[in-house]
Amino acid sequence: MRKSAGILVTALCGALVLSACDDGAPPITPTGPARPAATAAVASTASPQVQARIEAARSAYRAGNFQQALSEAQEGIKLDNRNADVHYLAGNAFNQLGGITPDAGTRASLFQNAVTSYQRAIELDPRKDEALTNLATVHYQNGQLDDAQKRIEQALVINPTDATSHYVLGTIFLQRSPGTAGETTDKAAKEFEAAIKSDPNFSAAYTGLATVYLFRADFKNALVNAKKGVDLRGAQQDPFALWALAQAQCGTGDTANGSKTLAAVLAFNVPDARFRGEVQKLQAGCK
Question: Which residues, in sequence order, are CB contacts of 168 under 8 Å at separation 6+?
């Protein structure tokens, strides 16, 4: 269970967080120290031409056309290199393209471009907490947990009630956890609970909290939260959310539903052989 739960966390953070942050956040008053005036960059206000590119990039991104979103953002950058929003949107597009690219070298290049774009957005607008949050997800996907935690904690200083940021920090703590009850696992639980408090419909936060309970071998509470996460997804189901539910069902002795859920997980044909092996192992014992 420990290894498979870790795979669950990795997949959730890579696939879900980015979709929650495609728009600009409302104006934020930073609570941390400001950068010295002599070195701070000043973001520009979007001209009508740049704003048109921003809207086109957002529209393409929401439609899942990440290459078109990138092209629109890059055109906006050509028009105004000092606009934080177009750099942020370029970062989102690079990030999503990296997440779906099978070639390791191309993926690494896309993620590096995402890092550069987010850093530029933050340089231009240090209050842009959504750029810090998504930069943290890139570091997470690259296995750079220290950098990811640093960036997400900076985002939470700026916007302490942001559900997505709490969720990302929870996944970082869960990835650091040894897969059992303990201080790091408790920290993960606290962050997932904070995400749910800020957004009671944040399905992945329930799945993350269910994973905490799986680590604690508390299958009853794992089942409650895993089911909530799955129910909130509706028709847009995710194999890793179902995997948490299956583990909870099997752990509570509900082997009939556990077997059905495991079959649904395998039907997604997730390419990760280790993940499929864990699912099949539980399937053999959940009878």
Answer: 13, 17, 133, 136, 137, 140, 148, 152
Query: 232 burial class (0-12, 13-18, 19+ CB within 10 angstroms)?
Result: middle
Dihedral sign, Cα of residue 234, residue 252, residue 3, residue 132: positive
- Which structure tokens are listed for 183? 């201080």
Contacts of 196 (CB under 8 A, 6+ apart): 163, 202, 205, 206, 209
The structural domains of the chain, ordered by start, are 1-12+166-287 (1.25.40.10)
End-to-end Cα, the chain, rounded Å: 17
Is the separation of the CB atoms in 192 and 167 below 8 Å?
yes
For 21-38, write each residue's pLDDT tens digit.
333 322 222 222 222 233
Question: pLDDT at residue 248 above 60?
Answer: yes
Six-digit token pair at 80?
């105004």
The span from the CA of 84 to the CA of 90, in Å, is: 10
**In the chain, how many H helices and how many E strands?**
14, 0
pLDDT the model gives residue 42? 54
- Kindly report the number of other CB atoms within 10 A of residue 241's CB atom: 28
Of 284, 270, 282, nearest in space to 240 by CA: 270
Query: Taking a C-beta distance cutoff of 8 angstroms, is the pair 147, 127 a contact?
Result: no
Each residue's pLDDT tens digit, 96-138: 999 899 899 999 999 999 999 999 999 999 999 999 999 999 9
What is the pLDDT at residue 29?
A: 23
> Tokens 């650091």 appear where?
176
